[in-house]
Amino acid sequence: MASGSKWPAIDPATLPYQAVVTSSGRISAVHEAGDVFPELPFTKDELVRLDNALTQATRRTKVRFNVYLGDLGDDPAQGVLDVFPKTPEAERSALIAVSPNHRAIEIRSGRAVGDRVTDSVAQLGVTAAVASFGQGDLIDGIVAALRVMSAAVAKP
Amino acid sequence: MSILETLLIFGVIPLVIYLIITFLSTRGKPYAGTAPQHFDLRAQWTHEPVLWSAVDEVTTHAHGHHELTAAPQDMIGGSASGKW
């Protein structure tokens, strides 16, 4: 694992059966024959684009950009408050949380960067994402939001 | 040994074995399991929640993880919500 961050992306204790973190940081795991692979339902290309967008946004702004994809409950605004404190470097981060089942997107930024990732920047991200979500492109929407937000947040 | 016998033993028999193995190898499934269906935004999200972050990137103000004591709503700077 690269030493750039004090945040372990993976806690070895929580890895599934027959999975291990290799010295490069990659996870090596077995697939049980016959099962549906426990992988993300996205193409490799989409994941690479998302990874690049996240890296560039974080590198450019020095604000930690996080993306959460999952259920936020019936009240997404409350659900995102439960998720936000557990994200990496929460107080200096911008969190894009998408709840596909409720067709909701919530963007929050930490207090320490609230003067840079303001409400209007967050609103830009929502607008960019929703435009793509409407066309059925989940990853494209998230990438668009990352690009728009990082471009709007000037480097200090 | 005639030329015909030589060809049969050293040419045809290996070729037949080769073709049998080729045929058998195309019959099996390429993977031992199936990859999950590509996620469609109209479908229900049934996977575990995912959190993506560029954790290898260094932000200048990172001093490691310190315990967050503020209530979640006091930690928020900017916010926006949307539906589609």
The termini of chain B sit apart by 81 Å
Taken from the alpha-carbon principal axes, the silhouette of chain B is elongated
- The run of helices and strands of chain B is HEE
Average pLDDT over all residues of chain B: 84
What about the largest sheet of chain B? none
Oligomer: heterodimer
Q: Which band does the percent of strand residues of chain B land in? A: 5-15%
Whole-number average pLDDT of chain A?
Answer: 86
Give the strand tally of chain A. 5
* Unreliably modeled segments of chain B: none
Shape of chain A: globular
| Parts with pLDDT < 50 across at least 5 consecutive residues of chain A | none
Number of E-state strands of chain B = 2
* Terminal CA distance of chain A: 28 Å
Q: Helix share of residues of chain A?
A: 25-40%
Tally the helices of chain A: what do you get?
4
Please trace the helix and strand order of chain A, writing H or E for each element: EEHEHEEHH
Largest sheet of chain A: 3 strands, mixed
